[in-house]
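[Discussion] Sanity-checking designs against the backbone

I'm trying to build intuition for which residues belong where. Below is a structure token string of 128 positions. I'd appreciate it if someone posts a full sequence so I can compare it with mine line by line.
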């Protein structure tokens, strides 16, 4: 079964806004793929990586890019039946996801729903 998530950038006030991720949302997988995408694929340029993940693929992702593939997004899916537009998801969205990954300028934070909102479960600095 797929682990659904949100890949996001931070917003003012401590929230986030991002795009739906259908697969690869498990923390062990998503943290590695996102770190590699930023550090290896974009030489540590978090802003450029985030722009690609969120702005250039606004329908979200079926699976994330990795060393062997460009990933598959919903907006450019070969299968038109697979095209899905969930719009912009935020910390306030009622999305059926298990995790959110927020790409801060200095770190990647994994969040899980809990209590009155989202709680950090893992943080990783952008270092090689």
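Best answer:
Here's mine. Compare freely.
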């Amino acid at each position: 079964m797929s682990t659904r998530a949100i890949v996001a950038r931070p917003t003012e006030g401590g929230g986030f806004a991002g795009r739906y991720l259908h697969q690869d949302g498990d923390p062990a997988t998503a943290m590695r793929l996102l770190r590699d995408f930023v550090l290896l694929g974009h030489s540590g340029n978090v802003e450029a990586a985030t722009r690609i993940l969120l702005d250039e693929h606004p329908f979200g992702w079926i699976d994330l890019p990795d060393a062997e593939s460009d990933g598959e997004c919903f907006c450019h899916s070969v299968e038109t039946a697979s095209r899905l537009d969930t719009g912009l998801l935020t910390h306030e969205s009622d999305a059926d996801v298990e995790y959110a990954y927020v790409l801060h300028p200095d770190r990647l934070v994994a969040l899980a729903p809990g209590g009155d909102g989202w709680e950090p479960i893992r943080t990783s600095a952008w270092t090689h």
